[in-house]
Amino acid sequence: xxxxxxxxxxxxxxxxxxxxxxxxxxxxxxxxxxxxxxxxxxxxxxxxxxxxxxxxxxxxxxxxxxxxxxxxxxxxxxxxxxxxxxxxxxxxxxxxxxxxxxxxxxxxxxxxxxxxxxxxxxxxxxxxxxxxxxxxxxxxxxxxxxxxxxxxxxxxxxxxxxxxxxxxxxxxxxxxxxxxxxxxxxxxxxxxxxxxxxxxxxxxxxxxxxxxxxxxxxxxxxxxxxxxxxxxxxxxxxxxxxxxxxxxxxxxxxxxxxxxxxxxxxxxxxxxxxxxxxxxxxxxxxxxxxxxxxxxxxxxxxxxxxxxxxxxxxxxxxxxxxxxxxxxxxxxxxxxxxxx
Length: 340
Ligand code: DAH
Prior knowledge:
Blueprint: H1 2-14, H2 20-31, H3 36-43, H4 49-86, H5 103-116, E1 121-122, E2 128-129, H6 131-134, E3 154-157, E4 160-164, H7 169-178, E5 183-192, E6 204-214, H8 219-234, E7 240-247, E8 250-259, E9 276-285, H9 287-292, E10 301-308, H10 309-317, H11 324-327, H12 330-333
Bound molecules: 3,4-dihydroxyphenylalanine.
């Protein structure tokens, strides 16, 4: 029996498994319930008394050595197996998903960039406005329909009734109240109207307001400034058309159309076969508005304009549903990669 154990001990010492499977076979062969070590312990009762101590120790040594082998190689085999599966230096890296700017931000930044080249700064105002800044100072008579609940979201506050601003023209008033001419500024921002949401209308959207006040500012200056903008925004060949219109805060007032960038003015379904698309309202600041804001209307004149950012983004990117801009669907948003 002693010889059998010593032979097994030598085999255990020399054993180097090449795989986890080989190691498991070794373990089962020696240490499992029906393994050789158990069998030796079972035979132990036949060992003569004088050899018992020595043989007993030998079996224990065999058991311990076999267990040590199993433990040692188990750790090695599983850790090298892990390395194989987790670190594969030849594998292609997972691409990083880079975000992109929202199309409304891209277009707003582009508008700011274009006007900043001719000296316009950027100014902002609050989205919750009082009646004075959103309506009264801008010459809206008390009975004007835009004050109606139909169009405006009114909110109650400690200082009385306030409104979510319906246009960025409210920022004009704040600027004129606080700055002395010459003023040349652009006011981008979000505006709100009580409209049913559809492909063509939304209860919030974005505008960029422009204001230029100085001595001797004329309608010709307005026209040339807007022509410059249209060409920068939609291309050198773009033409503009000013149609007489009405806004309470400008006199005279106009709406500006640009030649359709899809058909170059030939006529298509985007421009409804007119060759032109309306993009903004504009006009000479009404002397009443200048006076309301503390600016001497005998000395100063000025022009203002306001455009919808969604409208321009729609024309630029041929997006035909306003709702896409606020749904946050990455499949839509991922299409807009830009330097701005
Ligand atoms: N505030 C007008 C709107 O929301 C747009 C507008 C028209 C702005 C004429 C102006 C302007 O500054 O002169 O529809």
